[in-house]
Structures are given as C-alpha cells and as structure tokens.
Amino acid sequence: MDAAAIDQIHLNFNPQGLLIINAAVGLMMLGVALEMKISDFKRIIVSPKAPAIGLIAQFILLPAFTYLLVRVLNPAPSIALGMMMVAACPGGNLSNIVTYLAKGNTAVSVSMTAVSTAVAIVMTPFNLAFWGGLNPDTAAILKEVSLNPVDVFMTVFIILGIPLAIGMTIGTKYPGLADKIRKPFKMFTLVFFIVIVIGALAANWQNFLNYVGIVVFGVFVHNLLALNIGYWSAWAINLPVRDRRAISIEVGIQNSALGLVLIFTFFGGLGGMALVAAWWGIWHIIAGLSAAFLFSRRKLPQAELAIGNEY
Question: Is 239 left (phi over 0), alpha (psi -120 to 50) or beta?
Fold first, then answer.
C-alpha cells in the first residue's frame, strides 16, 4: 500500500458524529475537572520545580523533538502533521491513575494535568501552527486548509476551558454532589467515548485495515520518545524518582481525543492525521500501563519510601 495515498483519504465522519465526539470530550473534561481544586494550581507556585519542568517537557521539548523525529522518519505529510497534532495536545486524563499505579508522585501528576489543560488553550494552537509551519510538507496542508490559530484557540477553549471552569465550580461549591457523581460520571464518559471510537472505526474499517500498519511504527517511536523526554528532563535537574515517574507518564499520555476533535473540525478527518491520533489513543494506554508496571517493579530509594504524594 502506497504510504503517500494516505494523504488523499478523509475518514467518514458526519457533522452529527462530530458534534457527539465534541460533547464526549467536553464531558470527559468535566469529569476530570470535578477532581481538580484550586490547590492543584497553587502547588506550581508553592513548589514549582517538578510541575514546571514537566510543563516545559510537555509543551516545549516534546513538540520540538517531534519536529526532529518527523524530519528523520520523513513519513507521509498527513502522518507527520498528525504526530505534531498529538505532541501539541495536553496530558491525557488517564495519566493520574497510571502515575498512581507506577508508584509515582500523583500530586505532581494532578497539578500538571490541571495546569497543562489550562495552558493548552493557548499552547496547543501555537505549537501546531509553529512546528507544523516549519516543515514544508506539513505547512502545505496548513496553508491548504487556511488554519487560523485563533479558530483553534476558540475550539480548544470551548472543549477544555468551559468544562474545566464548570467542573471546578461544582467541585468547590457543591463538594458533596461532586463526590457522589465523580466516579459514575467518569465511568459513563469513558464508556461513552469508547463507543464513539468504536463507531468511528466501524464506519472507516477498510481504511483502518489498509493504513493502520503505516502509523504503528511512528506512534510507537513517538510515544517512547515522549515517555523518555519526561523522565530524563526530570532526571537532568535531579528530581526525586517518584517525580520523574509522574512527569514521564504525564508527557507520554496525551489527550489524543482532543487531537481527533481538532482533526475532524479543521482538517476534515484527513487520513494520516486521524489514524495517528486514533492509534495513539489506544497505544498510549498500553504503553502507559507497561511503563507503570516496569516502574512499580523497581524499588524506590529509601529516602522516598516514607514520603506521601505531596511535595
């Protein structure tokens, strides 16, 4: 199968389906926001070192190294832009659970999720436009669709910003209600999103079978790169082992659902982009749980064994 042919296909997804997937991502964000508190944002001011290096790895190092990876691998332009799209997204909402399983610092993970979600409203459209514009092949796609970063900003704000504000308001003003609905709401939205993804795959099954093999290697290398960028950037400034694990997982698990929404909204479901984001959404769960298993099997330094999840 000619890899370049993937640039010519557009996955089948009608406006009603797009509206549903937008709603699903917004509801998922609302469920995550129910668990967030103002203190999660304050942590980065009180003890900024760990979350700050994590955010640098998330929004500066990962997009920059993704650009370099794309130039080395030289995939089809739509695949390259899909990798850049994923790298521009904030951390995914499963990162906190995976960090806990990895015996990492969940406080660092939670604060990074909170702050990166807010920062992504600006940084996701910026990174996509900046790094995508540097590569002549991907720049041609951006020019063809006349991508306006302001339009991307507004979409991200609606999908992430508004649910974030509503969820945190409910959690702050009605903590009893938030405690009651948090777990069932998260389970409902997760199942809801899985059903949507399955439906999207069913509608595009032949394209999926024809081209997914092309993106598997790229996603594998890209995700491995993300996990390592997070871990070794934390190691470079001598953060505790538990913080390194948290940052590694936070950078390695991306909100690819947001990427899918942006791809269907602004790029018409462009084949390579959509398949990269969709496969990343599956693979980063496998890779994250695998990393958590490996981390949890390694003993923590004696000095960290008695330390809780605060820093």
Answer: beta
How far apart are the C-alpha atoms of 239 and 231, rounded to whole Å? 10
Amino acid at 288: G
Find out whether 111 and 40 touch, Cβ atoms under 8 Å.
yes
Total-model pTM:
0.84
The CA dihedral of 194, 196, 199, 200, to the nearest 10 degrees, is -110
Instruction: Give residue-wise pLDDT tens across range 138-189.
Output: 999 998 887 788 888 888 888 888 888 888 888 888 888 888 887 787 777 7
pLDDT in tens, 176-197: 888 888 778 777 776 776 776 6
What is the rounded distance in angstroms from the CA atom of residue 146 to the CA atom of residue 20?
25
- Ramachandran quadrant class, 304 (left: phi over 0; alpha: psi -120 to 50; beta: rest): alpha
Assess contact for 57 and 249: CB atoms under 8 A: no
Tell me the DSSP string of 46-102: HS-HHHHHHHHIIIIIHHHHHHHHHHHH---HHHHHHHHHHHHS-B-TTHHHHHHHT
> How far is 258 from 30, CA to CA, in rounded Å?
13
Query: In the block, which residue shows the tokens 């390695």?
Result: 252
**Mean pLDDT, rounded, for 109-116:** 84
Judged against a pLDDT cut of 60, whether residue 311 lies above it is answered with no
- The angle at the Cα of 30, spanning 219 to 126, to the nearest 5 degrees, equals 50
Q: Which two tokens mark 111? A: 């604060």
Tokens representing 120 are 């992504």
In DSSP terms, 309 is beta-bridged to none
CA 271 to chain centre: 19
| Amino acid letter, 267 | F
